[in-house]
Request: fold
Amino acid sequence: MASPTDFYSCTLAALRRTFGYPAFRGHQADVIAHVAAGQSAFVLMPTGGGKSLCYQIPALVRDGLTVVISPLIALMQDQVATLQQRGVRAELLNSTLSARETARIEQDIRLGHVRLLYLSPERLLTAKMMALLTTVKLALFAIDEAHCIAEWGHDFRPHYRGLSVLPERFPTVPRLALTATADAETQADIIRRLGLTDARRFGASFDRPNIQCVVVQKHDAHTQLLRFIQHRHRGAVGVVYCQSRARVELTAAFLDAHGIPALPYHAGLSTRQREQNQQWFLTRPGVVMVATIAFGMGIDKPDVRFVAHLDVPVSIEGYYQEMGRAGRDGLPAEAWLTYDVHDATGLIRRIKQSDATAERQRVRLHKLDAILALCETAACRRATLLRYFDEHVAPCGACDTCRRPPRTMDGAPLLRQIVEAARRTPGTAHEVAAMLAERERVRQSWPRWRPVRSADGWRAVIRQCVAQGALGVDHRAGSHLVATVRTAAVLRGRQPLRLPASRPPRPPETSARRAPPRSAPDTASIRARLHCWREAPARARGVPDHVICHDAALDLIATKRPRSRFALRWIAGIGPRRAALYGTSILATLSATTAPE
Reply:
């Protein structure tokens, strides 16, 4: 049996030869060596962290067919196109293929000519596909976006539940479950249903330091969004999320009327229109997609420079996944959100009036409180976001609250009132807030008494206390508020608790972050020429620009200016195959750009 060192050397060689990267990132090396050795695993890795390599490289070094289960046709098409450009024998089977194409791919699978096969869960679970898979040697089942399997997850897909058949029908084939956002309950559900109880678990940091978080108070959302794009990201690719279809249509039309190419995407459009708009977004430069949450899961477009939210998301998990669609190439990007207290009350009302069970409503309210706390915090937004995933970091110094800290006050007296109320009558955050507000109302009749906070005000205080760990939520006891270790430390004066004195002031929207230093004119000119060069092979092959070459690789070429194909192959993201395919034209573009006039 091969040693871990042998597997590492083999997979590193595949990384360099096929993908053109000099080394693995983060936990990639450990995950890939573990899976390449034929072991199952559960991987929690942030968006843009390189999850796809965790099954693509084992597929290249293991003997047999790797089956990748993915929720979206667009995601499968994008990954297969990219792999085929790199010389990997990858295919997908879905409803868009003709009977002849389907028959050809199935025959190639039987003959062992396919290394990676992409399927939706619906396609995998058909009797015909199950029968086909029993006739071939299988190397691995990779379940991407695995949180879709959990009913409590934020992107539940009923057919993902059927994947529990895999350990029963194929007990000797290793399984790899991957997700970017999953709380403890969702992780437990994934592991149980996929039979991964004894599998090794890998967790990476959720921190995306290249994405800056900015929250602004909403007063004219469309005008604010327009100003943000014009001043910070003119000509850049971006995604704008809205809660309703009508708001999507209005926002896309507004941006388009003001010279920003924008397209709508929501479930109310025809399938053909959605696919066409998505293809334009993936292949054309400078397009802004305005969408509901129906868009984006698994979209692997590396050059998205901003993600904007005109409405508050319903959970931190959803927000993290949506904002994570920006800056996948590692270059600077922004997550921009407009917030108003009325957004919170409207969402709370919708949850309470929904047909969901009482338990499900409590879970939804808790998740909503977490995202509202992020919007209202006076602390570092990055640290607040990561704390939700049990990751603790120092203030980033780059988000809006770090650059312009809002006024704060001592929160210990308010925490004491909350703890006393919760001790007398245990309840959820919303029940305790209502109790405190009622106490305020009764005391209004007392001489010299001045009410302090309404129910909404108390809910905001409780949200901040929970977000900072000064209060906890016990989901096993009906999502009741409970004291934590930090509660006692704050009440005894051993630790400070700073809460916003008022809603955070609106930061200037045009100075979100110090802009990166401008490149020298010649480097900028080279980069622009390389971007123009990339469009021709992309159009000829009918694939997005980034399939030919990522922006980050073009930036390195413009900076390092290799003079030979041998030097070009060592640029991160190029590798031997791309150097062979495009080396001559890249070097010619460099030569034409740098030649003296």
